[in-house]
Amino acid sequence: MQHALTMADKALSENEVPVGAIIVNSKNEIIGQGWNQPISNKDPTSHAEIMALRQAARAVDNYRILDATLYVTFEPCVMCAGAIVHARIKRLVYGATDPKRGAAGSVFNILNSEHLNHRVEVSSGILADKCGEQLKNFFQARRD
Question: Does residue 133 carry a catalytic annotation?
Protein backbone atom coordinates (compact mmCIF):
# COMPACT_ATOMS: atom_id res chain seq x y z
CA MET A 1 0.00 0.00 0.00
CA GLN A 2 2.91 2.29 0.64
CA HIS A 3 3.90 2.06 -3.03
CA ALA A 4 0.32 2.85 -4.05
CA LEU A 5 0.56 5.99 -1.91
CA THR A 6 3.68 6.93 -3.88
CA MET A 7 1.62 6.61 -7.05
CA ALA A 8 -1.04 8.84 -5.47
CA ASP A 9 1.70 11.42 -4.86
CA LYS A 10 2.38 11.38 -8.63
CA ALA A 11 -1.29 12.19 -9.25
CA LEU A 12 -1.09 15.01 -6.73
CA SER A 13 1.99 16.44 -8.42
CA GLU A 14 -0.03 16.58 -11.67
CA ASN A 15 -2.96 18.28 -9.89
CA GLU A 16 -5.09 15.13 -10.25
CA VAL A 17 -7.16 13.56 -7.48
CA PRO A 18 -4.50 11.68 -5.47
CA VAL A 19 -5.33 8.02 -6.03
CA GLY A 20 -2.64 5.46 -6.74
CA ALA A 21 -2.68 1.75 -7.54
CA ILE A 22 -0.29 -1.14 -8.02
CA ILE A 23 -0.81 -4.74 -9.07
CA VAL A 24 1.43 -7.51 -7.81
CA ASN A 25 1.60 -11.08 -9.08
CA SER A 26 1.75 -14.26 -6.97
CA LYS A 27 5.52 -13.73 -6.54
CA ASN A 28 4.82 -10.29 -5.04
CA GLU A 29 6.39 -8.56 -8.06
CA ILE A 30 4.85 -5.31 -9.29
CA ILE A 31 3.44 -5.92 -12.75
CA GLY A 32 1.35 -2.77 -13.06
CA GLN A 33 1.07 0.63 -11.48
CA GLY A 34 -0.89 3.77 -12.09
CA TRP A 35 -2.26 7.00 -10.75
CA ASN A 36 -5.29 9.11 -11.58
CA GLN A 37 -4.81 10.91 -14.89
CA PRO A 38 -8.26 11.74 -16.33
CA ILE A 39 -7.58 15.49 -16.46
CA SER A 40 -4.13 15.31 -18.04
CA ASN A 41 -5.14 12.50 -20.43
CA LYS A 42 -8.53 14.08 -21.18
CA ASP A 43 -9.90 10.59 -20.65
CA PRO A 44 -12.59 9.78 -18.06
CA THR A 45 -11.36 6.17 -17.87
CA SER A 46 -7.82 7.10 -16.75
CA HIS A 47 -8.37 6.15 -13.12
CA ALA A 48 -5.43 4.74 -11.17
CA GLU A 49 -6.84 1.21 -11.24
CA ILE A 50 -7.44 1.26 -14.99
CA MET A 51 -3.93 2.55 -15.66
CA ALA A 52 -2.48 -0.23 -13.47
CA LEU A 53 -4.68 -2.86 -15.13
CA ARG A 54 -3.56 -1.77 -18.59
CA GLN A 55 0.10 -2.01 -17.64
CA ALA A 56 -0.35 -5.37 -15.90
CA ALA A 57 -2.24 -6.81 -18.90
CA ARG A 58 0.66 -5.85 -21.14
CA ALA A 59 3.12 -7.37 -18.64
CA VAL A 60 1.33 -10.74 -18.61
CA ASP A 61 0.38 -10.47 -22.29
CA ASN A 62 -3.25 -11.27 -21.53
CA TYR A 63 -6.41 -9.38 -20.62
CA ARG A 64 -6.87 -11.77 -17.70
CA ILE A 65 -4.53 -10.94 -14.87
CA LEU A 66 -4.81 -14.12 -12.81
CA ASP A 67 -3.49 -14.68 -9.27
CA ALA A 68 -2.82 -10.97 -8.80
CA THR A 69 -3.55 -8.48 -6.04
CA LEU A 70 -4.51 -4.89 -6.73
CA TYR A 71 -3.61 -2.33 -4.06
CA VAL A 72 -5.34 1.05 -4.36
CA THR A 73 -5.49 4.00 -2.00
CA PHE A 74 -9.23 4.67 -2.50
CA GLU A 75 -12.17 2.33 -2.90
CA PRO A 76 -12.82 1.64 -6.59
CA CYS A 77 -15.76 3.18 -8.43
CA VAL A 78 -18.27 1.14 -10.44
CA MET A 79 -16.22 1.45 -13.65
CA CYS A 80 -13.02 0.27 -11.97
CA ALA A 81 -14.78 -2.51 -10.07
CA GLY A 82 -16.19 -3.81 -13.35
CA ALA A 83 -12.74 -3.76 -14.93
CA ILE A 84 -11.28 -5.57 -11.92
CA VAL A 85 -13.88 -8.33 -12.33
CA HIS A 86 -13.28 -8.59 -16.09
CA ALA A 87 -9.51 -8.82 -15.52
CA ARG A 88 -10.08 -11.67 -13.02
CA ILE A 89 -8.05 -9.97 -10.31
CA LYS A 90 -7.91 -12.36 -7.36
CA ARG A 91 -7.69 -9.86 -4.50
CA LEU A 92 -8.30 -6.16 -3.92
CA VAL A 93 -6.74 -4.26 -1.03
CA TYR A 94 -7.80 -0.66 -0.59
CA GLY A 95 -7.21 2.14 1.88
CA ALA A 96 -9.92 4.78 2.30
CA THR A 97 -13.58 4.04 1.62
CA ASP A 98 -15.70 6.10 -0.76
CA PRO A 99 -19.06 6.60 0.96
CA LYS A 100 -20.51 8.32 -2.13
CA ARG A 101 -19.42 6.10 -5.04
CA GLY A 102 -17.61 3.08 -3.60
CA ALA A 103 -18.23 -0.16 -5.49
CA ALA A 104 -16.30 -2.57 -3.24
CA GLY A 105 -18.89 -2.67 -0.48
CA SER A 106 -19.56 0.91 0.65
CA VAL A 107 -22.35 1.86 -1.76
CA PHE A 108 -22.27 -1.01 -4.26
CA ASN A 109 -20.76 -4.47 -4.02
CA ILE A 110 -19.80 -5.18 -7.62
CA LEU A 111 -16.78 -7.30 -6.68
CA ASN A 112 -18.87 -9.93 -4.95
CA SER A 113 -22.11 -9.75 -6.88
CA GLU A 114 -23.85 -13.09 -7.23
CA HIS A 115 -24.85 -11.97 -10.72
CA LEU A 116 -21.28 -12.01 -12.04
CA ASN A 117 -19.09 -14.99 -12.88
CA HIS A 118 -16.05 -13.85 -10.88
CA ARG A 119 -15.68 -12.78 -7.25
CA VAL A 120 -12.80 -10.79 -5.80
CA GLU A 121 -11.42 -11.13 -2.28
CA VAL A 122 -11.58 -7.68 -0.66
CA SER A 123 -9.57 -6.24 2.23
CA SER A 124 -10.27 -2.65 3.21
CA GLY A 125 -8.98 -0.03 5.60
CA ILE A 126 -5.27 -0.66 4.96
CA LEU A 127 -3.48 2.63 5.81
CA ALA A 128 -6.95 4.16 5.59
CA ASP A 129 -6.08 7.20 7.69
CA LYS A 130 -3.08 8.08 5.55
CA CYS A 131 -4.96 7.45 2.29
CA GLY A 132 -8.00 9.41 3.48
CA GLU A 133 -5.89 12.30 4.77
CA GLN A 134 -4.22 12.68 1.39
CA LEU A 135 -7.61 12.97 -0.32
CA LYS A 136 -9.03 15.25 2.37
CA ASN A 137 -6.08 17.64 2.09
CA PHE A 138 -6.35 17.72 -1.70
CA PHE A 139 -10.02 18.65 -1.70
CA GLN A 140 -9.58 21.14 1.16
CA ALA A 141 -6.83 22.90 -0.81
CA ARG A 142 -9.11 23.06 -3.86
CA ARG A 143 -11.90 24.64 -1.81
CA ASP A 144 -9.53 27.23 -0.33
Answer: no
